[in-house]
Amino acid sequence: MIAKIARKECTEMWRDGRFRWAAGMVFLLLVAALLLGWQHHAKISSEHKTAQEISRRQWLEQGEKNPHSAAHHSIFAFKPLAPLALADSGVDPFAGVAVWLEAHKQNEAVYSPARDATSAGRFGQLTAATVLQVLIPLIIILLTFGAFAVEREQGTLRHALSMGVTRRQLAFGKVTGVALALGVLLAPAALLGAFVLALSNESAAFSSPLPRLFLLVLIYLAYFAVFLTVALAVSALAGSSRLALVALLAFWSVNLILPRLATEVSKSIYPTPSALEFQSAVARDMREGIDGHNPYDQRGEQLKQKLLAEYKVKSVQELPINFAGVALQAGEEYGSEVYDRRYGELWAAYENQHRLHTFAGIAAPLAVVRSLSMSLAGSDWHHHRHFAEAAEVYRRMLVKRMNDEVTYNSVSRDYDKNTRGRELYEQVPDFSYQPPALVFVADNQNLAFELVMIWLIGGAFTLLWAIKRMKMDAKDF
Amino acid sequence: MLSKIFRNELRRLWRDKTIGFIALIIFCAALFGAYNGARYARAQAAAQEKILAEENELFAKMQAEGRDIEAGEKTAPLFGNPLHAGSVGLFYSRTAALPPASFAFSSIGQADVYPTYFKVNGQRRESFMDATELENPTNLLIGRFDLAFVIIYLLPLVVIGLSYNLLSAEREGGTLTLLLAQGVKLRSLLGAKLSARALILLLPLLAAVSVAAVFFDATLLRLFLFGLAVIFYIAFWSGLAVLVNLYGGNSVANAVTLAAVWLALVLLVPTFVHLSATALRPVPSRLELIAASRDWQTKTRQPQNYLEAYYTEFPDRRPLGKDLTKYDFPLYWAAIQREMERRTAPVLERYETALEAQQDFVQTLSFISPALSAQEIFNDLAGTGYVRHRTFIEQVTQFHHKHRSFFEVKTFRDERLQASDYDRIPRFSFTEEAPKQFFSRLAWRLLPLLALMAIVGLAVWRKLLGKIPAFG
To answer: Which of A218, A328, A372, B423 has the fewest Cβ atoms within 10 Å of its own Cβ atom?
Structure first.
């Protein structure tokens, strides 16, 4: 019986010229978004890869110089794009793409694409994710607002129920019917997406994106299921199809708008410093510490005395190691402490803001789905932070290596005469970023996954309850 | 007759309790949006003030130390000597900050993406112009809830919600033919209904903006232009609702059509414009810039050559009695910076030209989306758009030259600064656009919105003329 109802619903929908037209448009947009995303992804990926190779070459060819100077020149780290980012660009347009891993400084990633774009870019990106998050729910609403309401107005609802069809059968039938109609639209797009993904996964570093893709599909199916059940419930309860449509459109609009409110609230509850304030705070903290470059620095003097006592010699020249290197590394380690504290505070604030954004998902499922979609695609802030932290680990390793060369393997105590060359630079391994595993997403998105379950279950129960309470005749309102 | 319909319409709408609720929502949303914008602007101004105060303190301390050194009470340190022209000019920065404009509360715009400060020193431009603002990229992605957002995204939804069944409700209720039979002209009926709704929409908005203008910074000129833009924008959407109604569909069909149009004009079209702009007017990859300048750095082996080249160009600045082959980091660095800037100047020029071209392209295409047009106008009015940012960059570049020239001669001559020189170190102060120029530029920018409104108005008029009143 359910199958019969489903088939009838599906056929009716596909016969409706307006639905065919709308579905066609959305399908074209989805395909266009996937292809554009693929092309953009390929271009940017190869650019970053080339830039990383050039950076490594420049590191090796920088010539004879003091190892610490080499650490100042250092390399740039370029953020690789996750394979699924072609479907959901997430925060990539707004996050920097290149970090300079110089000595003494933990720099921010620079050159975000948004900085070289116009205000038109702030209206959104055309990605598969935006089509799925904004347009498909609208299609679902258009398909289902009249599912019960129109039948009631036409009188066929009581008719159907008098034929021995139970209310539940009717509900399940309609759910399945709409799902089938949508499936015709979405299945080819999903296949195209998987195909495009397979073609573009040239980056060996990224683990197979299939588990992530699978979860991504599940999340979106859950999102559509939520809209489906809520829309059917509203259709069952509303006094007229017009009221059902208006209510659902209002829900869809609030869905779009609420996340922005969450942004404002999160920023006022968990404020973050401006770049000026951040740099100022770091500079102040640094002044309290050791300045490795200043031979007249007070704390450097204390360190020197300590070392002289340890090696039981009277002057720096008698030390078996180069004190300059020790001072430089001490300054670097103090700097690392400062940055760990300051960035730690900043990132904790971002984490709290993220939690609040997800919380908005209680009233707007878009907030949850967007967050999960970005996370699974590897283009959210957590992945950006993961890259920044990996780059920092590499930077500290590189700088320590160079400073240790100065400390233990100096050919001369004179800074400018203590030069090394390519044979040293080659000993530092190339920067190779290891992206996080899938469990990384689970760790960061606990709340989001829970909210998805709540919405799914809530939607289902609401529909069942609505079906029970549904009035069968239009005159009953 | 008209005023009767108008009053009746108002009464009917008022009796529907949701209308009061909607008016309240508009008021609160607009005020909240303005508050968020003002908060952002205030935070920006406060941060700049604090930094400038710290900087002035630091320079005052350096000047005092310089005086002590000149008076012989202190010996000049080898490191961090406040009278060493090269070190002070190259490594101590003066912040050039873009203060929030008057009316900044109306739109946060691009202020969270374009940097609003630069720490200018004597080194080459790119070394400090890479500055980025610090913001959670998720916040940038989701977007801000400011007054511009309320007007561009929310108000059309309210207009649609109030007017989608303007005629169809009467038609479906059977009262349309009755009204028209009494000699009421269709256009008068529409006019009265629209005016009633416009009142409900614009009054709370006006109230919210007035409150905001009192508490936050706003000039009459900008308020006037803002008012015009809002009126054109709302008129566009109202006209669109009327047009859809005139096609005789039922309420449900109207609602669907209008929702689809909102989606297209507010979300899809601007996205397409952005796509076309980045595809047809691309900005060269910044990675190229990084690679090029670092390539040059990698290959530089003999900084003395650049130093020599400088002294060949300016022989009168050659320091007397100084052994130039002996390593003097600030001197070498100054020469290298000059050379690097000279080499990367054409590359940077290409970026700026490309960005300008992309911006012009978007500006031209804003004719096809009222939302994009309105956003650009609001950004401009709030001083958070491209034009003001561009002006800021130009003024910072000039300031950079001034700053460098101040220290340059003494740096290369290896002469000492004097403590009194500190009083003359250039300071940055942003010059706003002249009001007359601002007004004429923005009046031009209102043209796309006006054109769109006129096109819709024309379509409505033609439909009305062609309509047979009795058919309804």
So the answer is: B423
Residue B471 has pLDDT above 50, yes or no: no
State both tokens at B279: 């595809």
Distance (Å, whole) CA B228 – CA B407: 49
Q: What are the CA-CA distances from residue B314 to residues A221, B317, B339, B340, B412 (Å)? A: 72, 6, 14, 18, 10
CA within 13 Å, CB half, A397: 13
Q: Does the complex come out with an ipTM higher than 0.85?
A: yes
The answer for residues whose C-beta is within 8 angstroms of residue A21's C-beta and 6 or more apart is none
Which residue ranges make up each domain of chain B?
1-472
- How far is residue A165 CA from its own chain's centroid? 46
pLDDT tens for chain A, residues 1 to 477: 888 888 888 888 888 888 888 889 999 999 999 999 999 999 999 999 999 999 999 999 988 889 999 999 999 999 999 999 999 999 999 999 999 999 999 999 999 999 888 999 999 899 999 999 999 999 999 989 988 998 898 888 888 888 888 888 888 999 999 999 888 889 998 888 888 888 776 554 566 688 898 999 999 999 999 999 999 999 999 988 999 999 999 999 999 999 999 999 999 999 999 888 898 889 888 887 666 666 557 777 888 888 888 888 888 888 888 888 998 999 999 999 999 999 999 999 999 999 999 999 999 999 999 999 999 999 999 999 999 999 999 999 999 999 999 999 888 888 888 899 999 999 999 999 999 988 899 888 999 999 999 999 999 999 999 999 988 888 777
Would you state the structure tokens that stand for residue A136, as one six-digit string?
Answer: 């498909």
3-state secondary structure A235-272: HHHCCCHHHHHHHHHHHHHHHHHHHHHHHHHHHHHCCC
With vertex at residue B117, the alpha carbon angle to CA B116 and CA B120, rounded to the nearest 5 degrees, is 150
Residues from chain B contacting residue A366 (CB–CB below 8 Å): none
Tell me if A242 and B359 make a contact (CB, 8 A cut-off).
Answer: no
Show residues of chain A in contact with B283, CB under 8 Å: 116-117
Q: Which string of DSSP letters, residue by residue, matches B401-461?
A: HHHHHHHHHHHHTTPBP-GGGGGGS----PPPPPHHHHHHHHHHHTHHHHHHHHHHHHHHH
Q: Domain tally for chain A?
A: 1
DSSP bridge partners of B416: B84
Calpha distance B397→B128 (Å, rounded): 11
CB A171 within 8 A of CB A467: yes
What are the tokens at A357?
Answer: 């954004």
What is the C-alpha to C-alpha distance for residues A406 and A322, in angstroms, rounded to an integer?
Answer: 7
Residue recorded with tokens 């319409």: B9
A291: amino acid identity, one letter: D
pTM of this structure: 0.93
What's the rounded Cα separation, in Å, for the pair A375 and A461? 28
User: Among residues A125, A83, A90, A109, which one has the least CA distance to residue A382?
Assistant: A90
Residue type, A151: E
User: Of chain B residues 16-35, which have a CB less than 8 A from chain A?
Assistant: 32
Q: Please tell me if residue B277 touches chain A, with a CB cutoff of 8 Å.
A: yes
Name the phi and psi angles at B94, rounded to 5: -110, 130
CA-CA distance, B148 to B111, in Å (whole number)? 13
Answer for the pair B142, B424: CB distance below 8 angstroms, yes or no.
no
Write the residue in B44, B138, B263 that is nearest to A381 by C-beta.
Answer: B138
The beta-strand segments (E) located in B70-193 are: 94-97, 117-120
Nearest CA-CA partner of B226 in B242, B212, B241: B212
Q: d(Cα B140, Cα B122) in Å, to the nearest integer? A: 32
Domain that holds residue A345: 2-476
CA distance A1 to chain B (A): 30
Q: Which of A180, A195, A256, A178 is nearest to A31 (CA)?
A: A195
Min distance B359 CA to chain A CA atoms (Å) = 6
